[in-house]
Amino acid sequence: DFYVREFLTNETPSKIAWIGSFEIALQYLFGIPVGMAFDAGYFHHLMIGGSMLYCFSLFMVSLARPGQYYQIFLAQGVGMGLGLAMTFLPPITVVAHHFKRRRSFAIGILTSGASIGGLVFPIMLNKLIFGPQGFALGVRATAGTITGLMIIGNMLMRTRTQSTRAEDAEMVRVPVKTLLMDIPYMVFVFSGVLLTLGIYYPIFYLQLFSVKHGINANLAFYVVSFMNTGGLFGRLIPNFLADKIGSYNVLMPASFVCAVVVFSILGIRNAAGAIIVALLYGAMNGTHTSTTPAVLSDLSINVSEVGVRMGIYFTFMAVPALFGQPISGALLTGRFIWWRATVFSGSCLLAGAILMVYSRWLFLKREGKDQVFKKGIFRHIMGTSQDAT
């Protein structure tokens, strides 16, 4: 919203959307090599290198000049995207290695940090950018804070075992081709492709939608914060339930509700409506983000597959992450024809949710309901229903 209305006013919404889309796409694109590197014992190399690149690139954003699209694209889209590529997957995977009985809830706690950051940093940036500090100092202050948090995070994280790199290398010899032939897994991957095509639309455009529909700009800014507030609860409560009733059984309804909430954007008429939509969508999107790794873990046969399976999944997500928002921006046009972009995103989410149900059915059919929790490394606690998948 700041780029569209203030900083890059000479560019179209579709072109500006390429910045965030490219950043997210790079975060996913290197999923396979990052996952294999993690399984080979390079966790700390990835985290330290990625943290340094991300923080450096964020400082470089502060040097960008108004109207200079390429400067923002290189620093944020390319630099920060590559940093995210190295630091996104390893923490999720290392948590999956540490926890078995409460894995979904543990991943939920981990990913809740994104919601807390998404709640704090937009408010912080808004006060700094539109205050006496301005854009450059505001971004530098944010970059400095993130650098400090990255240092603390790297100091706190440890891998589960201290096996040698040679031993780790033996573990990762899982043929990628074999995983690509796993039908329930690949159907789940393609459901994720459809979901990713539509899932970022409210995150990118809900604030702008609110402003264009007469909601006070200062209040509309906090739509993002409300979305992240909802995301905090969506990453914790549903993941706690996922350990009880199964990750699939939590993720599927959340995906359907995401679609419904996106369609409801067209019904927003006032600030209260925007806040309700932001809270609901934030909660459901948070559930999707935090529960997906747990489902991918459940689909794994043994621990050596976890990193590669997650890597393959997120690599596939790079394509819809790259093109989803530019498509929405192109449908929106400079005249802001909202219904076209909203229907496109909502339809993608609905189709992805339906395909996910099919993936679960294939998984149960392959494993057999009485075998779902006897195979694989991710068992639920004693007494959990055998149908909870």
Describe the structure.
Helix 2 (13-29) packs parallel to helix 5 (69-87), helix 4 runs antiparallel to helix 8 (134-156) and helix 15 (247-264) runs antiparallel to helix 18 (338-367). This protein has helices at residues 2-7, 13-29, 31-39, 43-61, 69-87, 89-98, 103-129, 134-156, 165-171, 176-180, 183-199, 201-212, 217-221, 223-245, 247-264, 271-298, 306-332, 338-367. The two termini are 40 Å apart. With 389 residues, it is mainly α. It is globular. The longest helix is centred in the last third of the chain and has 30 residues, at 338-367. The chain has one domain: Up-down Bundle (Growth Hormone, Chain: A).
Report the C-alpha radius of gyration, rounded. 21 Å
Q: Give the helix tally.
A: 18
Level-1 CATH class name: Mainly Alpha
What CATH calls the topology is Growth Hormone, Chain: A
Beta content comes to under 5%
Question: Which keywords apply here?
Answer:
Growth Hormone, Chain: A; mainly alpha; 389 residues; globular; disordered C terminus; 0% strand
SSE blueprint:
Elements: H1 2-7, H2 13-29, H3 31-39, H4 43-61, H5 69-87, H6 89-98, H7 103-129, H8 134-156, H9 165-171, H10 176-180, H11 183-199, H12 201-212, H13 217-221, H14 223-245, H15 247-264, H16 271-298, H17 306-332, H18 338-367
Helix pairs in contact: 2-5, 2-17, 3-17, 4-5, 4-8, 6-7, 6-17, 7-8, 7-14, 7-16, 11-17, 11-18, 14-15, 14-16, 15-16, 15-18, 17-18
Give a brief description:
The chain has 389 residues and is mainly α. The chain has helices spanning 2-7, 13-29, 31-39, 43-61, 69-87, 89-98, 103-129, 134-156, 165-171, 176-180, 183-199, 201-212, 217-221, 223-245, 247-264, 271-298, 306-332, 338-367.
